[in-house]
Amino acid sequence: MLVRSPGELEEMLLPERIQMAIGYFWHRVPSLDCTEIFAEDQLAYCGRDHPLFARARRIRVADAFEHEWAWRSYPLPEAGALTPRKISAVADNMEAVAMLVLSGRRLGYLPEHFAAPYVKEGLLAPLNPKAMRYRVAFQMVTRTERAARTGQNVRSSRRSSRICKPRMRDARRCRKRSGSCI
């Protein structure tokens, strides 16, 4: 198993260095097929040593945004208005974001299921969980049969990629058709 950023996984899939990837892919590459396999809630958290810890569940969004945040190295369109202004650290995986949040120096979004053991131990607290959450879809991604037959490479696929958000309520199979996911 490899833990890599979405971009690195795509670059490994296209020349067939790997056959399948599972992760969050924020844009669609025409030579890759993606199938949504699950969705998860991302909640904002603070560490036990952070000044907001004692009142974390009652904090206003605007107050949380006055603090420093850890953020992902790739775009998160689903976060929308919940994107903080004071991003002072960037990481491409949840384990690194968790370390930064656990330090008590930064706030950050983590998958709810991933943070649950830390919350239970009193090491993390969710920040206003009703207001500071967003949902992301995870996909299983493989090369399309057409790309495998024609040997389509990374450059030609990257040139024609577009941002494409699947519909969360009924996204079963996500293929790029006319610039939209169905």
Question: Keywords, please?
Answer:
D-Maltodextrin-Binding Protein, domain 2; 2 domains; elongated; single chain; 182 residues; alpha+beta; two-stranded antiparallel ribbon; 11 strands; 5-stranded antiparallel sheet
Structure overview:
The protein is α+β, with helices and mostly antiparallel strands and 182 residues long. 23% of the residues lie in helices and 30% in strands. It has two domains: 6-38 and 136-168, no CATH class; 40-135, D-Maltodextrin-Binding Protein, domain 2 (3-Layer(aba) Sandwich), CATH 3.40.190.10. The chain has helices at residues 6-13, 61-64, 94-102, 112-120, 145-150, 154-159; strands at 21-23, 27-28, 32-47, 69-72, 87-91, 108-111, 124-126, 133-143, 162-163, 176-177, 180-181. The two termini are 29 Å apart.
CATH fold type of the largest domain? D-Maltodextrin-Binding Protein, domain 2
**So, the CATH homologous superfamily of the largest domain?**
Periplasmic binding protein-like II
Total of helices: 6
Number of strands: 11
Q: First CA to last CA: what distance?
A: 29 Å
Uncertain residue segments: 152-182
Count of discrete domains: 2
Write the layout of secondary structure elements.
Layout: H1 6-13, E1 21-23, E2 27-28, E3 32-47, H2 61-64, E4 69-72, E5 87-91, H3 94-102, E6 108-111, H4 112-120, E7 124-126, E8 133-143, H5 145-150, H6 154-159, E9 162-163, E10 176-177, E11 180-181
Parallel strand pairs: 4-5
Antiparallel strand pairs: 1-8, 2-9, 3-6, 3-7, 3-8, 10-11
